[in-house]
Amino acid sequence: MPRFLPLLAILVAFSFSPSLAVEKNVQIRLLPEKTELKGGDRVTVGIEATIAPSWHTYWANPGDSGTIARIAWKGIEGLEATPIQWPLPSKLPIGPLTNYGYEEKVVLLQDLTLPKNLPEGPQTISATVDILVCHEICIPETHEASFTINNGSDSYSEAIAEARSFLPVEMGWATTLAEDAGDLVVTITTDMPSAFSKLDSVNLFPEEWGLILYPETTRATREGNVLTLRHKRGERALADIPVSKVVITYEDATGNKKGFRVSTLTESAGAGGEEETAMDVGIFKAMILALLGGIILNLMPCVFPVLSMKALSLAQLKDRETSIARKHGIAYTLGILACFGLIASVLIVLKAGGMQVGWGFQLQHPVIILFLAYLFFLLGLNLAGFYEINFGLSNVGHKLTAKEGLSGSFFTGALATLVATPCTAPFMGVAMGYALTQPAYISLIVFMALGLGLALPYLAMTFIPAVRHILPRPGLWMEKLRQFLAFPMFASACWLLWVLSQQISHMGQFAALLGMLALAFGIWLVKQRPAQKFWRVVVLVLAIASFGFTISTFTGMKQMPESDEIPVASVNQNWEEFSRPLLEKYLEGDAPVFVNMTAAWCITCKVNEKVAIATKDTQKLFADKGVKYLKGDWTNQNPAITHYLEEYGRSGVPIYVYYGPKDKNTGARPQPVVLPQILTSSIVENALTQNGE
Amino acid sequence: MKSIFLTLAALAFIASPMAAQAAPKIGEAAPEFTGMDSNGNVHKLSDFKGKTVVLEWTNPQCPYVVKHYDSGNMQKLQAEYAAKDIVWLSINSSAAGKEGNQSSEEANTYMEDKKSGPTARILDPTGVIGKAYEAKVTPHMYVINKEGVLVYEGAIDDNDSSKQEDIATSKNYVKAALDALAEGKPIEIAQTKAYGCGVKYE
Q: Model-level pTM?
């Protein structure tokens, strides 16, 4: 590419020079977001500078040399302009000096407020732009540019939206500045630490001059949710700058340049000790939450039957056989921990590889959903007594023995983990979110705590005979209960098929149903034991064919391409599909915004929607308040949604965020409110009425 | 092998940032330097002990320098403080082949044209003095008191525009520092952000 630049330069010079009396190195254009305006309106205007190749203009802090652009507005009496909003700068080394600025093209943004008594008819607003442009030499250029409103001229809402995407995101993260060993140390407590996976790409841009030596590099480290940047100190005393703003740019996992802006406080002495304890509390809390979440998982419809059967077999043990029970308890626990360890490792590895994944990611792949659906179906058939193969469940009526079945217990543990994954307990959202934003070893600890929680009830039963005594005496009721428990399993299978129907075509869904039929037929065939050899061979061939068919259905499970999903706005639909530009557009406006992130496989999400959001009352409330309702669907992978979840410290759905309306006087929006993961319509109502009233 | 070592050493030298040297600090001794002026005379900072010294980084083609020379602002300051026995050194650190680089003759012709009368105009094409002071832009101004202590560093005034008409309404930091020194008062603003074109180092 660089080798084409000179050619490009010639082409550009050739195409521009004949039409211009004086050759300028910058072309200025004004891009109003709207051109139909009335008195008192506020409009964003982009000041687009197209910069000649190899030349550059400057950011809010120009670095070692240079000056910032100055823009003076005129044309309408009483016109007011906000300070310039500067897009993310680049570091431009010029010999031993370094500048902060822009090359090729930049769009600065300013908001203009029109006077209340705006005269009728077309009005021309013009700007005098003083801009310094340099490469080897510097040339201050003065440009006059203008645009006309209320005469049907073009507006540039798309260009403005694009320009906004290059602005740093304002973050309220606690940030301190300190000095240590000749370095400026910027300490930021972030709630999206995993965004900073490429620490090499992190660059510090202070808006105040003299804080750092610009040609030096920023060294970033991250520990937990604390991002620390070190950069060689500049000449200016820190005490000069009690409060300042800094912009930090970085590359996200996919290599896109991102940036945020924070206010900093200068601190006199480091407070490292406090931060460490704060983090310890974080781990401790997350472990407790994970443990609780794990225990609650035992009650989920998909796990409960598996566990009940396991527990019932214990009831048949005598007290003196406790040592056998303990061995089974330990084997079962190990099975769970091994399985959780595996899932956690896969997650951590995928994360480290830059994949946008979160808890529940397993369910974003149709093959896994189908596998789980078949698994639940098989377990259901087993419980119903359709066939007897020891799944670790069917030992009702058989005693546990020390010699055999230990591996079965291990397998049951692994199975429990597998069937537990779709049932994300509400408590786990926070713990998992925390776990996935932490260094690998902490993630692993939290996952292990979750596994331990899942294993705990059974483990307790095997270790404490008294707990086992709570169970009624063995009898026929156990057989009945076992048959009954087949139904939650079938129900789970039904639900998984429905999830699958959101991800694949109708044909794929039909194939999945046929796969189940073939599975059941195959099992029935295997149970047949014909006397004649001929029939035995026929049965065997047919059984193999049936199972083969079931397995073949996995190949048809291709995710529907995203472009196929054309969002159809139904008459009653009061939401729009979430996208980052749309959210930003609405946040620019005055109206309140409600964001709901959901997925087809997330039962909690569906229940919340049913009872709290899609109700008539809430819909009416949304309409009355003029709420812009955005819904994101995380059923399939969607990096934009994953990133949004990370911003709020989550790694899974659901999440509900309410952005209150802008204050009419100050034009400021209140802090967004994150609603609980279990919603009621009154919670939604409270959130909407308390804010900005 | 030797050549690799030399290449690496050369690279290390080129890459070594100017910050490697001790940065001049307000309230500390100004770095000593030796430089040759446009008339071939050699000057050392220590030669001027007992006198207040102004260092002015300059580049005749930089629009911000042009602002202060075409308006006569810089020459006026030079003349005013020459009369008060203050040493004024204009230093040109533009490297050979870069914008603003001057030979001795060009420098003298320029001073004659502009009626500029500093104590001396030092030519520093290797940038040694500029880097010792971490001079970043033109004009970048330094004031050193009679004891050889750096007391002011930064911009010439508080308006970083490139327009001559803004000079009349600007607060001149160098003038304020020199006047405070003369009256024995503390310098209120001892450090500012210098503005202008980057110094054209090699």
A: 0.50
